[in-house]
Amino acid sequence: xAKKQTQAEAGDRARLDIxxxxxxxxxxxxxxxxxxxxxxxxxxxxxxxxxGNRVQIEGEAEAAARARDVLMGLYxxxxxxxxxxxxxxxxxxxxSAEPTLDGIIRHDxxxxxSIMIRTRKKTIVPRSATxxxxxxxxxxxxxxxxxxxxxxxxxxxxxxxxxxxxxxGSVDRLILSRPAVEAxxxxxxxxxxxxxxxxPYLRPLYDALYDCLPAEQVxxxxxxxxxxxxxxxxxxxxxxxxAFIILDEAQNTTKAQMKMxxxxxxxxxxxxxxxxxxxVDLLPMAGGSGLADAVERLEGVDGISVVxxxxxxxxRHPIVGRIVQAYEGPDA
Length: 332
Prior knowledge:
Elements: E1 3-10, E2 13-19, H1 26-30, H2 35-44, E3 47-51, E4 54-60, H3 61-79, H4 86-96, E5 117-118, E6 123-124, H5 129-140, E7 143-147, H6 154-168, E8 173-178, H7 194-212, H8 215-224, E9 227-231, E10 243-247, H9 255-262, E11 270-275, H10 290-298, E12 304-308, H11 318-328
Parallel strand pairs: 7-11, 7-12, 8-9, 8-10, 10-11
Antiparallel strand pairs: 1-2, 2-4, 3-4, 5-6
Helix pairs in contact: 2-3, 2-4, 3-4, 5-6, 6-7, 9-10
């Protein structure tokens, strides 16, 4: 347990001390060549000095307090056996800025997450407050709509939850789907048969799977039918029972396609619909996005949850969040 103490405060500036009980953990907290400390300093505009088990933070009072909570959060995560990478550091820094009723600093930033998803290859922990809620909804709701920009982990976390439930036997199979919508290019001019034409559209789903399961298990489960990755059109006429079903890039479904997909839902199943309402590639003649229409109709229906991500939830790389804000405004 880390002990924190304020040594001196003057006006808007502060100097804070943290004494850590387990100094052998600090190498993982600080990162290789202290890269995590440098990231915190650069993002929050503070100075961090470390000697032995004692860390001193100097800077504006609010920034210093955030830096203290970030360091304690990273320390507690390492103490729980969780790995720390640059993305985790950026996520904890971002979470420290989310306001609460008690003020700027979130009390839960300094604590390890209360929920996580275990797969064969890694344990996934939430990297933003919205991801925490998303994981909680994935564990208890029948149908979840995950809306938001690229890089927020909508599909990745859903695939991890699906793999976790397949491993534990909660579901018998995974069904991962995407609409094969042409985003400026013509699908018909791609070489190969139909599978070779649509595989590039489904590649992000494969990538997430390989991140959660060993390659040989992915291939074996695909061959056995436990994992099915297919374009949305292949879902028509089916009833999907005892399955974890994910529809990615759902903003590119028509209203008829979305209704068709949602009504495939069967006993013992769970369904996640992921999409970015601001990235619709449908032609005007399609009559609007089926995702927006479905959310408008179904939000508030029992058993259905809607989770909205924003630019602040981007965990892919900090610059992606800034790009989203530049295109969609500061409230994205």
